[in-house]
Amino acid sequence: MCVRSCFQSSCLQWAWRTAFLKHIQRRHQGSHRWTHLGGSTYRAVIFDMGGVLIPSPGRVAAEWEVQNRIPSGTILKALMEGGENGPWMRFMRAEITAEGFLREFGRLCSEMSKTSVPVDSFFSLLTSERVAKQFPVMTEAITQIRAKGLQTAVLSNNFYLPNQKSFLPLDRKQFDVVVESCVEGICKPDPRIYKLCLERLGLQPSESIFLDDLGPNVKAAASLGIHTIKVNDPETAVKELEALLGFTLRLGVPNTQPVRKTMEIPKDSLKKYLKDLLGIQTTGPLELLQFDHGQSNPTYYISLANRDLVLRKKPPGTLLPSAHAIEREFSVVGTPFYVMEYCPGLIYKDPSLPGLEPSHRRAIYTAMNTVLCKIHSVDPQAVGLEDYGKQGAYIPRQVRTWVKQYRASETSTIPAMERLIEWLPLHLPHQQRTTLVHGDFRLDNLVFHPEKPEVLAVLDWELSTLGDPLIDVAYSCLAHYLPSSFPVLRGFNDCDLTQLGIPAAEEYFRMYCLQMGLPPTENWNFYMAFSFFRLAAILQGVYWRSLTGQASSAHAEQTGKLTEFVSNLAWDFAVKEGFRVFKEMPFKNPLTRSCHTWARSQSQWYPIGTRSYSSVPEASPAHASRGGLVISPESLSPPVRELYHRLKRFMEQHVYPAEPELQSHQASAARWSPSPLIEDLKEKAKAEGLWNLFLPLEADPEKKYGAGLTNVEYAHLCELMGTSLYAPEICNCSAPDTGNMELLVRYGTEAQKARWLMPLLEGKARSCFAMTEPQVASSDATNIEASIREEDSFYVINGHKWWITGILDPRCQLCVFMGKTDPHAPRHRQQSVLLVPMDTPGIKIIRPLTVYGLEDAPGGHGEVRFEHVHVPKENMVLGPGRGFEIAQGRLGPGRIHHCMRLIGFSERALALMKARIQPPTAEGREQERGLRRPCFHWSCRVKSRVAFGKPLVEQGTVLADIAQSRVEIEQARLLVLRAAHVMDLAGNKAAALDIAMIKMVAPSMASRVIDRAIQAFGAAGLSSDYPLAQFFTWARALRFADGPDEVHRATVAKLELKHRI
Ligand SMILES: Cc1cc2nc3c(=O)[nH]c(=O)nc-3n(C[C@H](O)[C@H](O)[C@H](O)COP(=O)(O)OP(=O)(O)OC[C@H]3O[C@@H](n4cnc5c(N)ncnc54)[C@H](O)[C@@H]3O)c2cc1C
Description:
single chain; alpha+beta; five-stranded parallel sheet; five-stranded antiparallel sheet; 43% helix; disordered N terminus; binds flavin-adenine dinucleotide
């Protein structure tokens, strides 16, 4: 920090406090919260160990599972498995050894998660010194309890380690009685173990208080007459204990610990320095403690002659340029430092504010917002801070600074960081205000009044300067987007904010604008993107320091590895902001902005279509990188064009020739088993890189899962695959798997991805999507009635579904199920999406349905009942009530994929029709003579036909049909490409009109084109000798399967009336 005036010999005031919080005097020299002392009737406090004195196995497991990509909840579920007689409880009673337990437990976890679970590594972490450490707040409480003459006991369900010592990572001297389950052979909640503990304490149940984090253990104690506290977090538990005991347990300085070995500072020179500076005459000691937060700059509590001070210093070692700007006195403590007055109060480290009422939480966040407004309302000139930072261009400077910081500590290339480094300078806000900014404004940098929601002090001003205040607003919303398990900066993106009472980020921004009298902030996504970018750069710095052994926190190494995660969050905001910027451009529609189109000569005759156009909109910074609308495969970028041609060769060499065999398999008795030829072709496609082409670049920007094509690029390839009914599956690009995979990429947790997405991407598993129900008009998804009910750690589903494509396939392992979790919620918040393993008991397939008599084996379209199907809670996608939102996201690109394929159907039908009516080509004749292998099986073998004295090709009506079909295909293709283009440029939501239009147009167009081809073929067109009948059936079915035509027409009309008057 560049706070020149923050340390003055005469006045130990914080710079900011002097400036604008003068009215808050040193009112709280001691904590006022706990004023009552003594008077307790209790004589002992009994502590459970895991979850009370040290972190609970459940908590440790949750973090470990995330880091090891194990489905979340596996460990906890396995710990509970078997109840009294499960491996965990037997281990606690020392009935099995550690080795035996790990063997049995490992098997159980692997069965549950269907993946190998390295339980040894979990066990080592659980019992490691780093994790198994007593919470300082508990150490303090135990000291205070004993100081009041009460007894303390630990009553632990614990176990023997492989070295035969019992696992009790506590100082036994803190307790009068220690009762260990593995020593006694009895476990909580068995009442005998509580009685044993009381007996050893020599007390009646009513004379003691018992703390445990597990409900059954607490219940058992309560039923014996012991007073109990259920522990959710240690801090809150200590408060409850204080209330019961009637005296304070926090006489020390909260949030401090003894100074860490590597962070020690010379006390004598510091004492001398302070005595000289403050003019103190004392022979008393200087008490020194270290605050347990402060990742970058170590912070110390100093008590000297009744003065409570805080010292903050630069960490030791080599530092990044301009980081940790604390420029003072080297000689006293070894690195520059500053000292300030200590302000007692509450610091809320967990931003979800556990243990508080929703109204209290809201008040805390409102107070946070208010104090930020106060900081931003300070007139820098009036308080002498006009030269506290440079004026203007704050954001560009910040972007440059943090890019530099990041580069200086970069250890490997992080794709999202690279994209952000390019994106940020192109999207800078046009207008910026300049005020005093804090630079690191977060809830845990605020000291609150102990009894009311009022901010007493703001900490950590190292990054303060003059700049754009919206940076502070955005930075204070980081927790909204981070998970609660995020190691350094706890968040709450997995919590229900409405229930908690915490304002959502958008509301927090609005609140700020209202208090400041500003118009609503439109570009707050930019500020969020930048804030996460900066956080990523900071984390990278911490990681870099951990590699060079200088980090001030033991978690530094782990912290740095999170850079990539945070940079992805930043990029999500960049994408959203990019769309906003795009939409604000002075054009009404992306495709009407100064396009120029030119024709290119075709080098070679393209048998399926004759397309030769490319249109390129003028580049603008917002979308230049995404290119123009490419309407011909020949105008694709060289690598994608090469991919297209590779696919085309593959179709000609492998797919079309295989069609007759695949078709006869579908008509054979073996049809409900996958065709071995398909599996064979899948391996070939994979080997040629023609695999998972469908995932749009926007959903998978790092090409982690797919080929990284834009929707337009994929449209060309998808059309080509659509010329065969089998190619989409052969290239792992078929519905409904594509939609489900995209759903998992967009919304799945890491554990869900590991379990479901990976096998689907590998083509080992298949999936289905279950929404439609026979009893209700399912074109309106809000009608869905199937119920999803909570029951302990499960959701229980009951419902009747039909037309579930793919559910009969023996490879189908996952059913993405849509049902109602809350019938009383607002209409669009009632539905939820659950991932249901197909081997869950209660799924009863009643029958395969047929489409015009076709079964579409082996996947089929099933009618299914779900009867009391129990699904673990962690299988919920995104959260209860988010089903509608997910279904819409899932069906965005997925639905236009069908349209792309329909263009392929139509091109193939037209090609077949032309081949049928024309004299054979030289190539066809060669094939007939057996000189060449057929390259396009069903078109090459047909002969030209003559009717009523004229070849069909000369009949006027046939020619008119051909012309009509060509025109209709071209129109529909342009509309498909346009929808894909708008999705690429402006996102799925902005493309709603284009998507609805093409869904309205493509199936009917294909039906007409295929129908004309069938007509030209005569009766043969209806047979299964040609793909036309199947194409026609599918095109017709898609007028329902993609939602009925009427629904799309209604959407188009609604949007037309809304926007085009
Ligand atoms: C081959 C095939 C595969 C399918 N695969 C799946 C699948 O995998 N998973 C799944 O969940 N479902 C699937 N479906 C079901 C499909 O999604 C539904 O058929 C579709 O949503 C329509 O619902 P519904 O059949 O209940 O018709 P309803 O909702 O009962 O509609 C019947 C008719 O009412 C009229 N109508 C409806 N809404 C309007 C409106 N707004 N304005 C005017 N008229 C209207 C239309 O004429 C419509 O055809 C599939 C269907 C088919 C044919």
